[in-house]
Amino acid sequence: MARKALQYQSGFGNEFATEALPGALPEGQNSPQKPPYGLYAEQLSGSAFTVPHKQQKRSWLYRILPSVMHKPFEQYVHPSFAAPKTDAPASPNQMRWDALPLPKKKVDFVDGIVTMAGNGRPDEWSGLAVHRYAANAPMDKRFFYNADGEMLIVPDFGALTFRTEMGVLDVAPGEIIVIPRGIKFAVDLQDDSARGYICENYGAHFTLPDLGPIGSNGLAYPRDFLYPVAAYEDKDGSHKMIAKFSGSLWQAALGHSPLDVVAWHGNYAPYKYDLSKFMVINTVSFDHADPSIFTVLTSPSGVMPGVANVDFVIFPPRWSVAEHTFRPPYFHRNVMSEFMGLIAGVYDGKEGGGFEPGGCSLHNCMSAHGPDAAVVEKAGNAQLAPTYMKGATAFMFESRYIMKPTPQALKNGLQEDYYAVWKSIKKTFKK
User: Which residue among the candidates 70, 288, 324, 369 is catalytic per the annotation?
Assistant: First the structure.
């Protein structure tokens, strides 16, 4: 058995060719009558066949057994992971949650997922769902794929090893991984437990944002996105495949590990990115640039340019030098909805407590939000000098969709007194 290969290939969206055994990639055609080593050829398409060539997403997999070999799927009952469904109206209230508790009983990555909010339709390829996860056990002989959307996973505690059809990716807090729609994987823990966030993107594939006037350098560089090299499992025995399909979970038995791809080539594969490599763009004079300058990845909506199905935005360590400026995030109301999480440190807009790593907040369309009272007092009277904002990394899943919290999110960890962080802001108006 050949398995743990942790060399990486770099370059966002590149065409890759990789083999775990010499000569396993066929020469000259994609599906020869008899592929090398007695393998089976299988194409995985992440886009329609007839999209323009530059938008095509597909990979050819050369595997020990084809994916079709499994018993019929049956519904899999999961208490907290599904498409967000609620009959209650979406609320304009600002919402914030405590960190998700680490499990006491043995729970793997899939069973540890808790759906928080979302909107849209996976069967119409639009919208998103936001989840959190907390796990303390590996996915032993269990595997997962998501037919509804790609999954952007943001660890805040505990490193993970993702064993995927295309190879192995190690992901630690401060890094992210994106697993495209339909790709099978299992998750092992490198520490005793792990916790983090998931954006399930039903819409267009995540891509790098257009830089416009920024030019050719800045934000996330394509070469810093890392893809796996081929590594396979040749394991027989009783295994389980869990699938998310049209908002529900399904389970099927199979007699072998589905991570049996010996070689592959194409541009449809999981990838990871180290957030510390993000090249921040910001003001060097006065006033705020829009938070869109912190966009790592974007899923375009097709509604109009710049209106995203979902953006992934980070606020990493950086210099703050603006003169005559209230430097923390300003008070604002936004047509986009913002789900925010904290990976590490203390976010500069929420220094008064209540927003900790593993916690999250939701500010929906046109719901007013901004820095808490303690930050307003401090920043409004600060002696301004160049300051390096170190230690904290926060992020947002920002979407054109109003995100509806799930009933379980409204019952567990919701801070009912979140509104109180603003109530002591002083009236300083003078005629």
Answer: 288
